Amino acid sequence: MFARFFKIPLWQRTAAGFALGILAGLILREKAAVWLQPIGDVYLNLIRMVVAPLVLFTIASS
Predict the structure, then answer these.
(1) What pTM does this model have?
(2) What is the pLDDT along the chain (62 residues), one digit of tens a residue?
């Protein structure tokens, strides 16, 4: 399943993500913020979890 997904070029996956985001915004309107808020929160928390060790190891290795 993942191998098939990664065979699609990155620019096509990015364009599909933009199109799906626009479509979700047009269909859900104001409800989009309520429905998609948990996904955004999880994404930001994952980014924060990666940044701290990355900075720490970058400083330690230099």
Answers:
(1) 0.65
(2) 889 999 999 999 999 999 999 999 999 999 988 999 999 999 999 999 999 999 999 999 98
